[in-house]
Amino acid sequence: MRSSIIGLLGIIFLCGFTGTLPTTKFQDSRDGIRYAAVSIGDLQIMTNNLQFQNETSYCYKDLDRYCKHFGKLYNYDAAIDIEGNPRENICPKGWKVPTLADWEYLILGMKPIIKRGKEGALTYHVPENYAQLQFGGFRSHQGSFYFNMGKEGHYLTATETAEGWATVKVRRQGKGYDLIILKNTDKDRAVSCRCVKDN
């Protein structure tokens, strides 16, 4: 079903399906960290940023206290291996890094108002932060430079694009939140992760 939604977000205004958001809680068996998740349509999405440590994960400004609140930051290689396949060692067992199609499906379910920006990019304005997305900023592709904590959240996908890599940016706008799909993210940039699974 999600594959048929690709492209529809930009041309159709749908009412979404966030009337009820059943919450589940679970523990990552690898490190004992507890997470919660909500259901949006037929997907569950974590309501905490992933904190799992691997060889390509970073804390904002290299400070542990930020990891505990905002989770780790991951680059493209943390999610996708050299053959282009999703890595199985980043999300908890049974969960996965969302594809761009998964994010489009989730955004559609958040009842967006769709606008086109000056450069032609689509902005999806949602009335509520249904998935409790956090403004954890990002780590620059140029090295150990960190930006925009408290102002923006950036989330990885498992989708490569012709321009680089697809990520999702969220920021507060008025009484709601704007979500923007970026398709030209540098693969060395490190961003937050929200794992998903099918209901």
Could you describe the 3D structure shown?
With 199 residues, the protein is mainly β. The protein has one domain. Helices cover 10% and strands 34% of the residues. The strands form 4 sheets. A 5-stranded antiparallel sheet has the order 6-7-12-11-10, covered by helices on one side. Strands 1-2-3-13 form a 4-stranded antiparallel sheet, with no helix packed on it. The longest helix has 9 residues, at 100-108. The two termini are 13 Å apart. Residues 3-19 have low confidence and may be disordered.
Which terms summarize this structure?
199 residues, mainly beta, five-stranded antiparallel sheet, four-stranded antiparallel sheet, 3 helices, 13 strands, disordered N terminus
Domain count, please report it: 1
Total number of helical segments? 3
Structural class: mainly beta
Count of individual beta strands: 13
SSE succession: EEEEHEHHEEEEEEEE
> Ends: how far apart?
13 Å
- Low-pLDDT segments: 3-19
Strand order of the largest sheet: 6-7-12-11-10
Shape: globular
Beta-sheet strand percentage? 25-35%
Radius of gyration: 16 Å
Indicate the percent of residues in helices. 10-25%
Largest sheet: 5 strands, antiparallel
- The residue-averaged pLDDT reads 87
